[in-house]
């Protein structure tokens, strides 16, 4: 099965699945509770109350927004099964309302949760449906994000060649959309998949490009993660001494360049 605009169809958690679907009330609730000075459980409880309060709304999209925000919060807390169940309810609400944009975003989040549960077939189905909607809407940025998540799911299924195709197309779309940090995530996923296939030289070049893109975007956490993975990949390629291959203290990018 092929994935991409030119074909038909369609984390680990290091790759995030934030589409632009959830806005309005959900964003307000998250901003004032989940990411504010209160405890994470305070935000979850506020969202749970909001779900109950919007249960009877005639505008089901408003109810779906809160469900999606709660699902994301549960996922951040590592409560993946609860997150998947809640996100499924968000999908149903958006579907009933006919809200294609928010439906696509909720399907993306649901697919990531299903991947975390190891339900890879169901995750790909959710991503495939989201992809079709993103293409219908002409949303290249979020199509690229979904394709990145497809690549992660395919990598989990050890379908690395297909994953690389998904990551490649994701990076292309995200470049066009000007989403450099998201492009870096796609490149990082591709680099890891290449390493799994033993294509170490290409993996190193791709991981270096991703790490540099994260640095340019100011995303130091993901840059550090990729630098650490680069050291291990270089070691496997026989290009750095084994003593330098440490996850705890990754080599600086300039040292990795020198080693290559």
In short:
About 70% of the residues lie in helices and about 0% in strands.
Q: What is the strand and helix layout of this fold?
A:
Layout: H1 25-34, H2 40-53, H3 60-76, H4 80-97, H5 100-116, H6 120-137, H7 140-156, H8 160-176, H9 180-196, H10 200-216, H11 220-236, H12 253-259
Helix pairs in contact: 1-2, 1-3, 2-3, 3-4, 3-5, 4-5, 5-6, 5-7, 6-7, 7-8, 7-9, 8-9, 9-10, 9-11, 10-11
What would you note in describing this structure?
- The chain has twelve helices and no strands.
- The chain is an all-alpha fold.
- Helix 1 (25-34) packs antiparallel against helix 2 and helix 2 (40-53) packs antiparallel against helix 3 (60-76).
- The relative contact order is 0.10.
Distance between the termini: 35 Å
Choose one word for the global shape: elongated
Integer-rounded radius of gyration: 19 Å
Fraction in beta strands: under 5%
Order of helices and strands: HHHHHHHHHHHH
Q: What fraction, in percent, of the residue positions are helical?
A: over 70%
Give the uncertain stretches in residue-range form: 1-37, 244-260
Count the strands?
0
Overall residue-averaged pLDDT value: 76
Structural class comes to mainly alpha
Q: If helices are DSSP runs of H or I spanning 4 or more residues, what is the number of helices? A: 12
Describe the main β-sheet briefly. Answer: none
